[in-house]
């Protein structure tokens, strides 16, 4: 922007809508500061000599049109690419975009309908045979296959070799083993049993013609080796008979060396049989998978027809349509390249090869005379593409992200210009002791084979000589027997973390990064990170018990959140005026805020029953509100009683809104 690039020519792409909005906000904040003549700390390296008159003029012009910058996710960016070119992109001009949940539900419904059709008729085939063997697992496998084919449209079936040679190889191996046992000068009994069991397996196999039918393939696939040949896990037993073969040779008057020679020969025959069986099963499994992929193709076609007829696109359509548009229409590619002359891709380590291809075609040019060249041969235009990525943060492999795409892109930049890759090693968030700890832990791991390489993080904030920046908490939760359940361990860890946070807040001095002044630690200065969100609710509850406010982006499921618990309690009270538990939860929760002591005082002050004077009265909506001495509790219960009387004349939604 300072160099005069208009905002509308700049596109910033990141992984989530939240990150995209935050990115735009930060850009706007930086530009606003620069326009006033203040250079933010993070940008001083970019303006070592300060701002020139040209810079100031360009930034003032950019500030007026800053909203024209494109900041979005990869899917939103692809939608911007294809929207002006519906004919070339082969999409409906008025097509809407389904959210992920809507697309998944439509796809699952199509899959289920197709499966019912397949299994209700008399078509037969590989799926029908599999369902006869294992209905639930087969349906699950079909869903998994079609889901992968939907997300990875270029996936093809693995190569399959003819089945008869593998059948013959196993039969030949078992016959050779049996012949060895029959002709050996000495025989070890367990080895003879192995050879006999393998021969029985070979004899039980069907001929090649029958084995290649759907029914034959599935029978082969589910065939288990003789139990006497297998471990508990189902794998073949290891062959360890050397001593027994030596003893068998001695019984026949042979030398120890003869026994060892016979053992080696028997071990070789056994290994050949096991290997032939494994290769046979692998071939059968590949053949079944290939047939399944071919048989489920109509599902994908139905899904495409559904979307086209309803003028809908899913997220995958946006990616593929953008790639095809840039690949197949050079004039469109040039126009879009001129429209977005500067493209920034954040979190590049979480992209996949298809997304990489989009950026390469948009920001690059094919080699001279190579308009149809592979995208990896494109040369990136100077300054057109700016990638930011950290392989240590590659966390979206389960969505198809591929850190190898990051490595290939980095290598391509280096090959084009050795100075085009900059190591952004300065860390603005953490102080020196923390980064020293992180560097020591990651260096060996990221320097090993197959890893992208290690770059040490340099601290922007040095060691201020404050309290320890890295600490380990020793959480002892074992009972008298030295044991503790996983739930007990997580609860104890959460309590220890909450206790430490409570000690830090209001007492630990820290440096305010914005003002540069020293102040005490606040709750908002602490971030709690966990590997997964499944147990984060335990930490939230522990922090809340210590009176520490919590703002969470994960953790408690929807129904564990306090606001939802309050809503459930309110709904139950309105639905059943006698529900004392729900009323107590509502009054004690943050929505009303009574303490347990206040609740006990309210109940104790209620009129007692003349028939049962020693029994505590019930606190529900049936009590006389005038008998409640606590003013807030009396006001709340009067309102709830009024709403409860109107439940038959109003909708539940209206009652909850009024409450």
Class per helix and strand makeup: alpha/beta
Number of domains: 5
Q: Uncertain spans, ≥5 residues at pLDDT below 50? A: none
* Number of helices, counting only DSSP H or I runs of 4 residues or more: 26
Mean pLDDT: 87
Described by strand count, sense and barrel closure, the largest sheet is: 4 strands, parallel
By DSSP, the count of extended strands is 12
Q: How would you sum up the global shape?
A: extended
| Spatial separation of the terminal alpha carbons | 52 Å
Biggest sheet strand line-up: 2-1-5-8
Radius of gyration: 35 Å
Q: Work out the helicity level.
A: 40-55%
Strand content: 5-15%
Describe the structure.
The structure is a single chain. This protein has helices at residues 17-35, 53-64, 74-82, 86-89, 100-120, 126-133, 135-151, 164-183, 189-204, 208-211, 214-222, 242-251, 256-295, 297-309, 315-328, 330-339, 353-363, 403-416, 432-446, 486-504, 536-545, 562-575, 580-588, 596-605, 631-645, 652-658; strands at 10-14, 70-73, 96-97, 312-313, 342-345, 364-365, 379-380, 385-387, 426-431, 458-461, 509-511, 518-520. It is α/β, with parallel strands linked by helices and 659 residues long. The chain has 5 domains: 7-93 and 313-422, Rossmann fold (3-Layer(aba) Sandwich), CATH 3.40.50.300; 96-310; 427-461, no CATH class; 486-556, no CATH class; 561-658, no CATH class. Strands 2-1-5-8 form a 4-stranded parallel sheet, with helices on both faces. A two-stranded parallel sheet has the order 3-4. Helix 1 crosses helix 2, helix 3 packs across helix 15 and helix 6 (126-133) runs parallel beside helix 11. The longest helix has 40 residues, at 256-295. The protein is extended and about 100 Å long.
